[in-house]
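Pasting as-is:
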Amino acid sequence: MIDAILNVIWLVLEGIWMAIAYMIAGLVCFVLIITIPFGIAAFRIAGYVLWPFGRTAERRPSAGLGSVIGNVLWIILFGWWLALGHFVAGVALCLTIIGIPLGLASFKIIPVTLVPLGTQIVPTRHRYA
């Protein structure tokens, strides 16, 4: 229940805006053809950014050297400005008491923003009481 309430507040304050940024990055990746795997990752992260509470990101153990090289290219092309957006939004959200959990969620998304390849989004294993 708490996850749902936080997700709705998140959606209005940050989720929709950052999801749009990821969608734009994904569309640019699809246009460039060779970067289609980045576009797929951008759309996957957009779904996570829309509804982050109750889910978390984990590294896939099977990810290899290709994901490392791809993540370096992603950081150079898209990751740094998306991570900067999450950082600025997180700081702004942490300025209010109610926004602190949302700001922390924004900070939680930054590692996924920087290294999306070789990462999977999974439901959290622990739930609130």
